[in-house]
Design goal:
Blueprint: E1 9-12, E2 27-30, H1 37-46, H2 48-61, H3 63-76, H4 78-91, H5 93-106, H6 108-120, H7 122-142, H8 149-158, E3 172-175, E4 190-193, H9 195-201, H10 206-211, H11 218-228, H12 232-236
Antiparallel strand pairs: 1-2, 3-4
Bound molecules: zinc ion (2 copies).
């Protein structure tokens, strides 16, 4: 150690045990207490048991007060602790994860109680409210339709602007597999249709409905499947739901 943290230590007069720091004929001392660091460490090592015992006794006698002080100290040095823990976590990620998993599996009941307590707490209410607000914000600001109007125009062209079912002029867009049957609101599930067909098909299974219509056309049916990239097999599965 050639350099030392000058916010914590200073190089002062030689201590009574002659702890000569780095051949300077001086001892490295704490700025706060002026004590020699090496003396302090030696004292700690020699009296470790007593010091720990004293500290734990002091803590159990003054729990409330000590906890209050710690909270106050942490709040005051909030940024420092945040960075400290972040660094510590990054450096020990794997072992921390393992420790937590071990703890959870060994203390299932206790963890369950903690979670229950947390869910009832005021902080949890605030956290949940924040989550809801964030979701709303995302919806408001960044919500984008899963397809563009250009893509929609192209889809009409794919079918010659004709209703995929009856072949009349298409004037609306139909969710081929109804949303209620697990169809998605994406381009791969959209087909042009006339209002009549669209209105009649509603939530019916597309195959069952279409094949029972007087204007059913095998060519048009296969054309839909081909353009949407579906097979008879995948459509067949629908009636199971
Ligand atoms: Zn010393
Ligand atoms: Zn039609």
């Amino acid at each position: 150690m050639d350099n030392f943290d000058t916010s914590k230590y200073f190089s002062g007069s030689l201590c009574k045990r002659n702890h000569n720091w780095n051949g300077t004929e001086q001892s490295l001392r704490y700025l706060s207490s002026k004590n020699c660091i090496q003396c302090h460490q030696k004292h700690y090592q020699e009296n470790q048991e007593d010091i720990k015992k004293y500290a734990s006794e002091h803590y159990s006698r003054n729990k409330e007060r000590v906890n209050k002080q710690r909270r106050k100290y942490r709040a005051k040095k909030r940024e420092y602790f945040r960075k400290y823990y972040a660094r510590y976590y990054a450096a020990n990620k794997e072992s921390i994860k393992k420790y937590r998993a071990d703890y959870r599996s060994k203390n299932k009941e206790r963890v369950k109680l903690w979670i229950e307590k947390w869910e009832k707490s005021f902080k949890a209410k605030i956290a949940n409210q924040r989550k809801r607000e964030n979701r709303r914000k995302i919806k408001r600001n960044n919500y984008s339709f899963p397809y563009t109007s250009e893509q929609l125009k192209q889809r009409f062209k794919d079918f010659d602007n004709k209703c995929v079912y009856c072949g009349e002029l298409a004037t609306s867009i139909d969710h081929f597999i109804p949303l209620s049957k697990g169809g998605t609101d994406t381009l791969s599930n959209l087909v042009p249709a006339c209002c009549r067909c669209n209105g009649r098909k509603t939530d019916f299974d597309p195959e069952l409905w279409y094949k029972s219509q007087s204007f059913f056309s095998k060519n048009r049916w296969q054309n839909i499947l081909r353009i949407l990239g579906l097979s008879e097999a995948t459509i067949g599965q629908l009636s199971l739901f």
